[in-house]
Amino acid sequence: MACPGDVVFTQRGTLGQVAIVPEAPFEKYLISQSQMKLSANSEVIHKPYLLHYFASFAGQKQILDSAIQTGVPHTNLSILRNYAVPLPSLKEQEAIAEALSDADALIEGLERLIAKKRLIKQGAMQDLLTAKRRLPGFSGVWMETTIQDIASVDPEALGAGTPKDRIIKYISLEDVNRGALNGWSETKFADAPSRARRILRENNVLLGTVRPNLQSHHLFVQQGEDWIGSTGFAVLRVRPELCSARYLFELIMSSIIGRQIDELIAGSNYPAISNRDVRKLAVSLPSLAEQEAISQILGDMDAEIAALQNRLEKARQMKEGMMQNLLTGRIRLV
């Protein structure tokens, strides 16, 4: 049984999860056997301060370092009672907790705003990429076609005769997440994974064919001759007289293509699609001018979301710095 204000710790499995029991809507709460509670003396400890401490790097390290590692990692009340907590005056604890709570509120507000902007973009994609809503100044029938008619699929690959000492910049499936390129590795061809074969050019669209529902897709905009992608990608090189690379990328990221892919992998033990499947994916194309106008709108939305994500990352870093300074006494508030 836990009461409002009690601090609850995970006792087994994923240790380090800490929460404070809310004041409402109940007077008492049942907690599972995999949790343990700490009822702190409010005359000595400000409970939100205690929560922030055990959510910090130092608090998390103490929980994990003291855990019993046999079988499933676990801890117990005897270990909990011996946790060390740096305690300034109650007044300073309250000031620290308020400052960190304000940082949390900023982070949570940005997370909600990003989620809202993503939903707005999804709605815009559904409307603009299906002709449900037309932009001012555009009319006419859209062309129903398939990817193989508007783009080359895997047009270039490294062969067996590639010099072993050639330096390549390799992009794996794990380097791409929902449109974002998070990194790459520079290596000699001889040391590269066997999947390092797809030659990439500027404005190629990368479609992840292994677990495609994870959307390891990317619009490649880098320049240079040494960029190589994994064979886990289908590399799409558009015919520029028919299709904009940005527009095709937006289609690949949309539910229009997503639903087709889901049908292809339904019931499969190993969710993957072939290059032949990719070639047959159905798309609808307006004129190039309308494609570019749609892509501009969706690209502006992406830029806004990216800017918010950058703000969110900075807010998280700011809070981490505050925790390091305030919870160790490096910076004093009172």
Fraction of residues in H or I helices:
25-40%
Strand order of the largest sheet: 5-14-11-12
H/E series: EEEHHHHEHEEEEEEEEEEHHHEH
- Overall spatial form: elongated
Question: How would you state the average pLDDT, rounded?
Answer: 94
How far is the first residue's CA from the last residue's CA?
Answer: 36 Å
Describe the structure.
This protein is of the alpha+beta class. It has helices at 47-55, 57-65, 77-81, 90-128, 147-150, 245-253, 255-265, 275-279, 288-326, and strands at residues 7-10, 18-20, 35-38, 143-146, 151-153, 167-171, 176-177, 180-181, 185-188, 196-199, 204-208, 218-220, 227-230, 233-238, 282-285. The protein is elongated and about 75 Å long.
Keywords:
334 residues; 39% helix; alpha+beta; elongated; 9 helices; four-stranded antiparallel sheet
Question: What's the short story on this structure?
Answer:
The chain has helices at residues 47-55, 57-65, 77-81, 90-128, 147-150, 245-253, 255-265, 275-279, 288-326; strands at 7-10, 18-20, 35-38, 143-146, 151-153, 167-171, 176-177, 180-181, 185-188, 196-199, 204-208, 218-220, 227-230, 233-238, 282-285. The chain has 334 residues and is of the alpha+beta class.
